[in-house]
């Protein structure tokens, strides 16, 4: 038992008080974990677009004060009642979506959409009692995605915690909590490009480049990067992307351009933009007979996918996926092993690093489009 188990911990957290305003480092009180929860000492966290999106609160219900953060790695400090597979000292990745191992989804080998612990962006409290574990002078602070990793200590449902090899460097594997696995898994688990195939990646942000890493690892020979921002092309070369298309350079649909480049279409495409037109292009640019397109980006709430049904009759397949089809507790330890075996590269995603007190710089880098991932060091 750690000396802090069962007690309230006072620690530093970056609190967001108002939409779009810089976070402030505050002393917060973190309550002990309740039934099926664990309290984690966060060592490294990184910033993802999803944090920024909810921090800006454009179009969603604002929920403040809130502690953001969901890509992270840390060590279990203490566990609540009923937690049997985690102990203090375990190295873990908290994940924004969970795996209860009991619901119909968790029992199906085909699904990672756990009914109990699936992502819920509107919930700012813990499931056990509908309360927050964070407070400042008695004022509750909302959680974010059940993870809230912009805090030196956080409380997470044990079903949202993947226990990993303690030899893994936490300042690298923290990016597996969200962005990397979302793109990489979309390719290797869902698109499954055969060796030597041609793969189009729409959107060359961190998610798209992770999808490209999946194509590289799968042995794809042509990896075609599609982006309306040509500034992304140079960096993408480090991720195995070897051909580039900017839809803005053409006065016809980009799917036609890609079909010409590839003698009828790519074998696989992965869409990582969130843009509905890119989603339609990603589908229509795959080869008839065998092409598979996978949608990853989060679309605008009013978006409608429109394509001619003949595209399906001609044996093109359209799929969508969530978190790279990974079950967090079951599958993440294996992804960590792949990194330790040097089968996948994570370093190239980490373009910046800041100390916790400089967390607002991580937001600036992302808003300027300068960073893929900025690691935030919680311990100096
Ligand atoms: N065609 C091609 N590329 C596009 C288009 C389009 N119509 N629209 C946007 N893009 C490009 C952008 O220029 C950018 O380079 O898609 C890229 C998206 O990258 P980021 O904004 O860095 O986003 P990322 O973090 O990689 O996430 C991508 O996945 O998880 C979701 O919500 C996330 O929808 C987003 C997507
Ligand atoms: Zn479940």
UniProtKB/TrEMBL annotation:
Localisation: Cytoplasm
InterPro entries xref list: ADH-like_C (IPR013149), ADH-like_N (IPR013154), ADH_Zn_CS (IPR002328), GroES-like_sf (IPR011032), NAD(P)-bd_dom_sf (IPR036291)
Classification via SUPFAM superfamilies: GroES-like (SSF50129), NAD(P)-binding Rossmann-fold domains (SSF51735)
EC number: 1.1.1.1
Gene Ontology molecular-function annotations: alcohol dehydrogenase (NAD+) activity; S-(hydroxymethyl)glutathione dehydrogenase [NAD(P)+] activity; zinc ion binding
Top-level taxon of the source organism: Eukaryota
Name this protein carries in UniProt: Alcohol dehydrogenase 1
Source species: Zingiber officinale
């Amino acid at each position: 038992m750690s000396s802090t188990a069962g007690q309230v911990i006072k620690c530093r957290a970056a609190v967001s008080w108002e939409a779009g305003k810089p976070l402030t480092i505050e002393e917060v009180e973190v309550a002990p974990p309740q039934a099926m929860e664990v309290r984690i000492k966060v060592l490294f966290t990184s910033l993802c677009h999803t944090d920024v999106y909810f921090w800006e609160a454009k179009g969603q219900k604002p929920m403040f004060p809130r502690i953001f953060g969901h890509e992270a790695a840390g060590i279990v400090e203490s566990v609540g009642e009923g937690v049997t597979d985690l102990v203090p000292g375990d190295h873990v990745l908290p994940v924004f979506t969970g795996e209860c191992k009991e619901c119909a989804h968790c029992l199906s080998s085909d699904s990672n959409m756990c009914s109990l612990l699936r992502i819920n962006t509107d919930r700012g409290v813990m499931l056990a009692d509908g309360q927050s574990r964070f407070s400042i002078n008695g004022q509750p602070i909302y959680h974010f995605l059940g993870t809230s990793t912009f805090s030196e200590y956080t409380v997470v449902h044990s079903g949202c915690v993947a226990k990993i090899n303690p030899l893994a460097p936490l300042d690298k594997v923290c990016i597996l909590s969200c962005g990397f696995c979302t793109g990489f898994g979309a390719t290797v688990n869902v698109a499954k490009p055969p060796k030597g195939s041609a793969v189009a990646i729409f959107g060359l942000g961190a998610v798209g480049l992770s999808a490209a890493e999946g194509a590289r690892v799968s042995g794809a020979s042509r990896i075609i990067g599609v982006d309306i921002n040509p500034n992304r092309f140079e960096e993408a070369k480090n991720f195995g992307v070897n051909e580039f298309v900017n839809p803005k350079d053409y006065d016809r649909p980009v799917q036609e351009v890609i079909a010409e480049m590839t003698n009828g279409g790519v074998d696989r495409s992965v869409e990582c933009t969130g843009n509905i037109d890119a989603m339609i292009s990603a589908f229509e640019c795959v080869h008839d007979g065998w092409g598979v397109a996978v949608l990853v980006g989060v679309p605008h709430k009013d978006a409608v996918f429109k394509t001619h049904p003949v595209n399906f009759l001609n044996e093109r397949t359209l799929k969508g996926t969530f978190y790279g089809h990974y079950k967090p507790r079951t599958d993440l330890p294996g992804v960590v092993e792949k990194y330790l075996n040097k089968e996948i590269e994570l370093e190239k995603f980490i373009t910046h690093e800041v100390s916790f007190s400089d967390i607002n710089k991580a937001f600036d880098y992302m808003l300027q489009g300068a960073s893929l991932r900025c690691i935030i060091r919680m311990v100096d």
